[in-house]
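Bench notes, afternoon.
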Amino acid sequence: MNVPVWLWFATIGGLAAIIVADLLLVDHKPHTVTVKEATRWVVFYIALAVAFGLGIWYFAGGTYAGEFFAGYITEYSLSVDNLFVFVIIMSSFAVPSIHQHRVLLVGIVIALVMRGLFIAVGAAAINALSWVFYIFAAFLVYTAVNMVRQGVGHEDEEWSEPRVVRFVRRMLPVTQDYHGSKVTIRLDGKRWVTPMLIVMIAIGLTDLLFALDSIPAIFGLTQEPYLVFTANAFALMGLRQLYFLLGGLLSRLVYLSYGLAVILAFIGVKLVLHALHENELPFINGGEPVPVPEVGIGLSLSVIIGVLAITTVASLLASRRNPAPTE
């Protein structure tokens, strides 16, 4: 897929314009985001991703469009698991509900910029060293096994501040209370950092840690950096609205971790087959490619959608049979 430089700049500029518009429209007057409002924005961002994918289909063909949609759905589904931790972070920092949207927006922008760097490094490594696919595959299978071991519950999930956040707390004076949406404030002639800045950094870095799973996963579906980046961008932009929309539904997705584990393991196997097909390691088949079948993008997309659908339905049915006790 030959992507000219101007298209990269146009895409990044368009995404930046959407984020700025979102910030101006939603945050011009801080308020608690309602379910109805969140639903409109989620539908908008999903429609935007679908339109972008159809544009790829028209200009680049169905194969690349399928890779984009598979990557987008995978990234979005993996991001849903992030929301459990976001809830914990918001509670830990006691973020006022009227400012939670801005916290998520800025935190996710930070994560998107840093993910872009990850994607660039990953793409360069894959182009130079085909055996990197083996490492990605092993990491995905390892992550899948850990997800299964953790089980279905998220109630006992713990979160600890990243070291960078603790470093900021030590190096900069932080106020005890929030001061509206301000990230810094001057008190008694001295510049202070508010908890708003700390929680934004925490959200951004936490999402970046989740990228350690999702970036190798999407590279298992497409090796096109442009598709990897845009799939991540659309998934992240719609994530914060999904946070307000899902709300209490998160606790009902009891089998989500199992479904995500199956998807990661499947992509891991797909990566191994691709690595064997491109093999250059001398101790495997004498350094020659191994004639193994590869998993097409159509099958990948079907498996991803099917697993997510089964996981969601099974989770909701299980929650209906065994509702969580109310306190």
